[in-house]
Design brief:
Blueprint (H helix, E strand, L loop, with lengths): L5 H7 L19 E2 L1 H8 L12 H9 L5 E5 L11 E4 L5 E5 L4 E7 L6 E10 L12 E10 L5 E10 L9 E3 L4 E6 L4 E6 L5 E6 L18 E6 L5 E5 L6 E6 L2 E4 L18 E6 L7 E6 L4 E8 L2 E8 L7 E6 L5 E5 L4 E5 L5 E6 L3 E6 L15 H6 L4 H6 L17 H12 L2 H10 L6 H24 L4 H21 L1
Parallel strand pairs: 1-24
Antiparallel strand pairs: 2-3, 2-25, 3-4, 5-6, 6-7, 7-8, 9-10, 10-11, 11-12, 13-14, 14-15, 15-16, 17-18, 18-19, 19-20, 21-22, 22-23, 23-24
Helix pairs in contact: 1-3
Length: about 500
């Protein structure tokens, strides 16, 4: 993303004091916007589309048309952080906000609709509402289409599923106007559903490919968190707990995994470790390649498919990145990243530095309107720089590059001593332990807070034990003193 025209647009985007998104600063390259505090203001009043009616914001949207960012957040379960679906401009002006549901996961732009998106959310139910699934609590998964400029919405599909945890759909993908692909996290599979009557056109079960000894425990076996229908008729699936991205293809016996296309190996964490939201980049844009948030490895990676297999062509992380769960390649070669435990959305430039970011609590999925669904308009990693420099879309630029070897591959940015220390510490601390602690911690806690708190508590315990041991009030010392006092008392009694 470039910042051309942002300063001028910021002035036109100033809202009056009654707006829940008052802006008073000018965006500069690399600046982090505190969008989360503006979400707090927006939550105090109904804002579903109402901000867009003001002429100043409308003018800003026209100027910053390609820079409207939509984010879905998961919220926190043991603290005060709400889940939300929100849209905001490059300068932080919030133009849409909704927090009715317990959790929001995937959000996708609707084809041929400039400011309309479909999102998936969930609410927790009890009582009679859970009757169809045999008991409470349960979850209602909802797919909704909303026009961000008017707030008008339509419920596309919903389904009640048993239990709450590992029962909320993380992703759906539209096949056509009547059918959706569902990443079925509850029953470990993928199916195509007709949204008009709920009938299932076809289904693939993970048990047809995986052994039950692999993956997670009962109730969260595969944790399928993403599904994507490709133009070639295949389907990309992300079974998180298998550390793999698989490709389903139709055959005479139904849908099955094409093992020759599988990215990753179960429990080989050097390739993938509990990944989220893989995006497929086709050959005409420099692929075939997969851009994926390698969550427990704390990095964004891209792999290119060659005759020999998958080859990693790009890796990115910075000192703040913690549990990334989405990455979209933009048409200009930049990469839009969701940093869930870093509480931000960040845009990474072709030189691998953060050119823009916004503080957002526990984000899960992000889209930049006007750039296509997920990474559908962006180039593969080796072409990022050349696409940003030449006119035309990614496909036309890639077609005119005769040799992509090393093109736009970027270089490891120079890091300060402090950054190297923190990155080294993250490598030493088991990621599942750190991310699990952050998941249940208050919303303001970051990895550095955990590190300082752990160090302080450990130091206090060691100091206390050492002091107690070496002091005269140690357990051994107390026992000896008690023995001496007892003997003296007994002797005194006998003398009487």
């Amino acid at each position: 993303m470039t910042t051309t025209g942002v300063a001028d647009a910021t002035e036109t985007a100033q809202t009056d004091s009654n707006s829940p998104a008052h802006v008073s600063t000018v965006l500069t390259t690399g600046q982090t916007l505190d969008v989360e505090s503006r979400f707090e203001s927006a939550s105090d009043r109904p804002t579903r589309g109402e901000n867009w009616s003001t002429p100043r914001v409308t003018e800003a949207v026209a100027t910053l048309d390609r820079n409207v960012t939509v984010v879905a957040t998961q919220g926190f379960y043991v603290s005060d952080e709400r889940a939300e679906l929100a849209a905001f401009l490059a300068n932080g002006t919030v133009v849409y906000y909704d927090d009715r549901y317990r959790v929001y996961f995937d959000v996708d732009p609707v084809e041929a609709e400039r400011y309309t998106v479909e999102y998936i959310a969930a609410e927790h139910l009890t009582g009679d509402a859970c009757g169809p699934v045999g008991g409470e609590p349960c979850t209602r998964n909802v797919v909704t289409r909303v026009n961000l400029t008017t707030g008008e919405e339509e419920q596309v599909y919903s389904e009640v599923t048993e239990r709450v945890y590992s029962a909320r759909w993380h992703d759906v993908d539209r096949i056509n106007e009547t059918h959706l692909l569902v990443a079925d996290i509850v029953d470990d599979g993928v199916y195509a559903v007709d949204t008009r009557d709920g009938s299932v056109a076809w289904r693939w079960n993970a048990s047809a490919h995986y052994d039950r000894e692999q993956g997670g425990s009962e109730g969260d076996w595969t944790h399928i968190n993403d599904v994507e229908a490709l133009a070639d008729g295949s389907v990309v699936v992300s079974p998180r707990n298998m550390d793999e991205v698989v490709f389903l293809e139709p055959g005479p016996d139904g849908w099955a995994v094409n093992e020759s296309r599988t990215l990753g190996t179960a429990e080989n964490h050097d390739v993938l470790y509990e990944q989220h939201n893989p995006d497929y980049i086709p050959a005409d844009r420099g692929g075939p390649a997969v851009l994926v948030a390698d969550s427990e490895n704390g990095r964004i990676v891209e792999y290119e498919r060659t005759a020999e297999g998958w080859n990693r062509t790009w890796k990115w992380r910075d000192v703040r990145l913690q549990w990334p769960r989405d990455a979209d390649r933009l048409p200009d070669g930049n990469t839009l990243v969701v940093d869930s435990h870093g509480d931000r959305v960040a845009e990474v430039g072709v030189n691998d530095t953060v050119v823009w970011s916004a503080d957002v609590g526990m984000p899960y999925d992000v889209e930049r309107l006007g750039t296509g669904d997920e990474s559908s308009g962006g180039p593969a990693a080796p072409y990022r720089a050349v696409v940003g420099e030449r006119p035309g879309d990614a496909a036309s630029v890639v077609a005119n590059v005769t040799n992509a070897s090393g093109v736009g591959s970027g270089s490891e940015p120079r890091r300060s001593l402090a950054d190297r220390f923190w990155l080294g510490l993250k490598t030493l601390v088991p990621s599942l332990l750190a991310n699990g602690a952050l998941y249940v911690a208050p919303s303001w806690v970051r990895f550095s807070d955990l590190a300082f708190a752990t160090t302080a508590v450990s130091t206090g315990i060691v100091w206390s034990v050492s002091e107690f041991y070496w002091s005269q009030y140690s357990l051994a010392g107390l026992a000896r003193r008690a023995t001496v006092v007892g003997r003296r008392a007994f002797a005194a009694i006998r003398r009487r």
